[in-house]
Amino acid sequence: MNVAPGKNAVSTIPFDHARVDRLMEEAGIDVLLATSKHNTQYLLGGYKFIFFAAMDAIGHSRYLPVVVYEKGGPEHAAYIGNRMEGGEHQNHPFWTPTLHAACWGTLDAANLAVEHLMKIGKGDARIGIEPAFLPSDAYTLIRKALPDAKLIDATDMLERMRAIKTEAELEKLRIASELITDSMLATIAWAREGMTKSEIIEQLRREETNRGAHFEYCLLTLGASHNRAASPQAWKKGEVLSIDSGGNYHGYIGDLCRMGILGEPDAELEDLLAEVETVQQAAFSKVRAGTLGGDMISHAEGVLKKSKVAPYTDFFAHGMGLITHEAPFLMTNHPVTYEGTYAEKPLEKNMVLSIETTMLHPTRGFIKLEDTVAVTENGYVMFGDRGRGWNRGGVA
């Protein structure tokens, strides 16, 4: 399917195109070729093709969605997708004036992208690409077909594009966090003595799915173990449980961690979780628009350094949204490999952060809180703000 320009109204652009144009100008980019699922979803206003939601491979190739967006020229925008996406367009038309729902692999998608760039006079332009999300065969085809073009890594520009959330995005992140929190608390209450990690994880998957979230993962520990992988290990009386789950709602991530106990927590456990909470609160106290990201990090780390649990406890904070680690990038290689480029920049309203303190206690096990907060002018709003103490197992 090839829908020609003029069919869709450019006035329905689902993102702040003036801001995107400004970011492209700063990055020296004339036209974008977005090829990652998360960035094409953002540029299409939240759309993601369900057929390839859990996989990319088909036949001898893979699904490669492409959004072509020209700086200052939204009337030249195009979406290049799979042949089956014509039906999606019939039901809910894409905003891009041009649609090519015609592809089954990477090379036909790349060919159509090249043809569209030539048609709009951008065959020798500065083209922003996503190197980590552009297959080598597609890259080679584009490079050979457009020898006069300059291919520029647009990764940072696209991350900056997504860093400030809209109100609609914040609502999806709030719902995702609420659904994940509800699911974790229900799973802890349901789990009983003798139930295995694998059984508890499967129950969480059902809880999230039944609530309308898309389950992605669960990292679970029982007792003194720090191993978070699924296994036949069974929950025993008096043992702690940590449940760290990621799921999404319409593509936006919910990523939180809560603690459970089979029985009643003793004084030591109450004290250990309180130490974790003290570090979390220290971080929260510095979250507001205008605070340098690094100042929030250093304050929380300073509080942790003075704690008796510091030798086996770690603090971490990162941005989140359509993916689990995105701008603002606050810490360098800790633990995910990227530069903390936002440490020296002020936090901005509607950025969203995941803040987590993790204790690997030598005898009591894995004790952690992970929370999601949205930055406001005067502080923050927390999503899924429940169950942050010891939650009793086997009570449902």
Brief sketch in words of this structure:
The chain is of the alpha+beta class and 396 residues long.
- Poorly predicted runs of 5 or more residues: none
First and last CA, distance: 52 Å
Please identify which CATH superfamily of the largest domain we are dealing with.
Answer: Creatinase/methionine aminopeptidase superfamily
Characterize the largest beta sheet: strand count, sense, and whether it forms a barrel.
Answer: 7 strands, mixed
Mean pLDDT: 96
The shape is globular
- Give the helix proportion (percent range): 25-40%
Number of helices: 10
Order of helices and strands: EHEHEEEEHEHEHEHHHEEEHHEEEEE
Tally of extended strands?
17
Strand order of the largest sheet: 1-7-6-5-2-8-9
The CATH topology of the largest domain: Creatine Amidinohydrolase
The CATH architecture classification of the largest domain is Alpha-Beta Complex
Oligomer: single chain
Which CATH top level class of the largest domain fits?
Alpha Beta
Q: What count of structural domains? A: 2
> What amount of the residues lies in strands?
25-35%
Structural class: alpha+beta
CA gyration radius, whole angstroms: 23 Å
Protein described:
The chain has 396 residues and is of the alpha+beta class. The chain has 2 domains: 17-162, Creatine Amidinohydrolase, Chain A, domain 1 (3-Layer(aba) Sandwich), CATH 3.40.350; 167-392, Creatine Amidinohydrolase, CATH 3.90.230. It has 10 helices and 17 strands. The strands form 4 sheets. It has a 7-stranded mixed beta sheet, sandwiched between helices. A 4-stranded mixed beta sheet has the order 10-11-12-17. The protein starts with a strand and ends with a strand.
